[in-house]
Amino acid sequence: MTYKYFPHTDEDVRSMLDKCGLKSLDDLYQDIPDELVLHRDYDLPEAMSEIEVRNLFNELGNYNEKLNCMIGAGCYDHYSPSVINAILSRSEFLTSYTPYQAEISQGTLQYIFEYQSMMAALTGMEVSNASMYDGCTATAEAMMMAIANAKKKNKVLISDTLNPIVTRVVETYAKFHGIVVEHIAAVDGVTSREDFEKKIAVGDVAGVIVAAPNFYGIVEDYTGWADLCHDNKALFIMNCNASALGVIKTPGEWGADVAVGDGQSLGIPMNFGGPYVGYLCTSKKLIRKMPGRIVGATKDMDGKRTFVLTLQAREQHIRREKATSNICSNQSLMALYVTIYLSLMGKQGLKDVNALSYSNAHYLAEQIAKLDKFELAYPEKPFLHEFAVKYHGDIDYLQEAMLEAGIQFGLKLDNETLLLCATETLTKDMIDDAIMICQGIQDFNDAAID
Amino acid sequence: MNNVYYGKLIFELSKEGRCGYSLPTNELEQYSLNDMPANLMRGEAPAMPEVDELTVVRHYTNMSNNNFGVDTGFYPLGSCTMKYNPKINEEMCNHYAFTGLHPLQNENTVQGALEVYYNLQSSLAEISGLSEFTLNPFAGAHGELTGLMVMKSYHLDRNDSKRTKVIIPDSAHGTNPASAAVCGFDVVVVKSRPDGTVDVEDLRPLLDDTIAGMMMTNPNTLGIFEHNIAEIAKLVHEAGGLMYYDGANLNPMLGKCRPGDLGFDIMHINLHKTFSTPHGGGGPGSGPVGVRAGLEKFLPNPRVVADEENMSFKIECNDESLGSVSGFLGNFGVIMRAYAYILTLGKENLRMVGPLATLNANYIKECLKDCYELPIEGVCKHEFVFDGLKDKSTEVTTLDVAKRLLDYGFHAPTIYFPLLFHQALMIEPTENESKETLDGFIEVMRTIAKEAKETPELVKTAPHNTPVRRLDDTLAALHPVVTYAELSAEQQ
To answer: The complex's ipTM?
Structure first.
């Protein structure tokens, strides 16, 4: 019996069984009724060598296609500095667990403290937790936080300009938690102020969730929203694109109570949907209502400045069914990812990334709007790097043709609308190529119709 | 691990004007952020550090040296299954043909990724004896919540809305009741017997038509196999409830027992425990959820299914589903690792995981039970619990023993859990540890027991050889300082 992950020689097994007073490995399971024991091997393949595993993944990889990415919708293709993966692969970080033993976990605790500091600075909020699974679940947690805070209310308002992928998750949590969700209508790509004022005035709302930039890429004006929420004793919750917060007005500046969202845009590879990292920031006043882990500064016996998990009385391992959330971990390694990203990019880098994305997206928008069959869906609205465009032709055919050219050309919203995105990873040449193909397809379609 | 404390924060290395990145020149500068309406833009740049690349690399490298991982040394953290995280898994999950995929890109261009996802779903179904899995949940706790949502959906689908309660043993992990509460259930606690297993007589009167189901781990948190499981499942099913299996303790069952065969209807698996994906300092994890035949339609959207006709895979949503618990298809990078692990072990090695993990646990238990209090005799599974030192006269606590272990280069076991004992010390060695490693640990545990008698102060003030000494938890909680902004304001 030799296998690379099992160090047990036959002699080891014999002497260890002896110590236990047992004769065979089967005896270790003598307490299990025989009819419950599996008396066969799993119906699975036999062991593969490393060479075979590599070959298999290479082969599977051949069935994937790396495309030029002109799609966002909650996941963004941003530049990721090579330093990050090198550090993340350090097994002291990778193979550790929750920093329960603070004396031998200062590495993890310190970077979480840095992460919290950076996310608080980025969102303009006072405090951050140690991270959550992703932006969708973080938003759901913020909703439950609002309900717990309001005590006797069980309704939240969600803007129709929030990414529907996020809304879907929030609504699922709401349904099971017994929360009523009402929508605030979207008009011309932005949240209807009128509808909001009408619904908040009823007085039964615990929280209001809006997006920045919103699903259509538009940066909305939330002047006065926080006050209206507070006048009606509701929390104002903003779901924001983390990277965009490097330049747009922050939840803190808008007067929000909770800032949530996905940190994927801070350089995390798209990875077919995960792992990403959710962030949740709030005010000091609400810190004890916040879900998830929190790291705080303290001192050790010798007076050294150190870091430790704190405010654990909110958490499930102590409070059980009365906890602020059932979450019992964070997305630690991905929080480290974001922390190193922000360390490298610093003040200026985040701005540069946004400036480049802005230029690419606005060039793409301007060029595409020049084509006969295309027009911007919301031409008057300010956007950063994502926008909706109308196409008066066959969208499926257009997207298929783009695929042939190795481009994922946006997300189809309906039969005449595409949501397009451009980040700093695109070049002017790539955009020009895409425009040329668009022109070709619309002209070809015209010819076919003629 | 390095015992010299590093202790700096990246903000303290910052100097105005430095940077650690390079970006292409902007060829389209005429499209400028300055054209955005000023009232929608932030007032000043966020307070991020300004540091060069090498400084960043050294900073985090030095920081990592104050951390202990499985690759550093033995990590017998009970209930966490800190097994070896194979390097080939890391190589595969960083494969360029997968990491650059957008989750919403055209289905035909992600067939390789969908095949990985689908094959892992099927493999887990075979290993669990259940019908179908979703890999969408992000962690064990998230899997629990998802599984309970399946349970609730099942009852509501039958128009049975009076089932509002979930039964949970008093030995359960705190996440179980917390997940039940988030899912809108009330929690009913069932007592354990002196041998640590569920008290069937205490369970009987709890079962009526308000019970949605019961959550259990098996083996339970004491590492004891619930030998009455068939009867418990029968009783709960007769009362109209469903059985939920918390996969936290699945490792010893590998090759030996399948939760589906034990009568469970819904379960989650922690890929970061049983299927060797790294814990990453607390995440990312992955908590796939499996269900018995008949419950598949309730699994969360989106789903990956085989399109037999076209010999391909597709992503589907269905209306009867409980809804969505994730934006996309879960932590795909973690899924890649777990699939590589299953392929690497194959059926002939997977069946050895449970027995070897169980052997290692029993060996430690037998070698130490003369100096540590073993509250429950008999064969354990992958883990077991001591109730502190056998000799209580020294007043050396479980916390002290745990801290002293750090001095000797071992991670501590899980302490003060489960709550059934005052001085719980929960040890789980995993199948990857050699007899020599276990003997080394046993010897140190015996030394500590001796020290507790002869030089108790030495143990009570431990650790002594770690980067920092015991920390002041109370200070941190009474006066929370959780950002650098607060910290630097204090220091001034």
So the answer is: 0.97
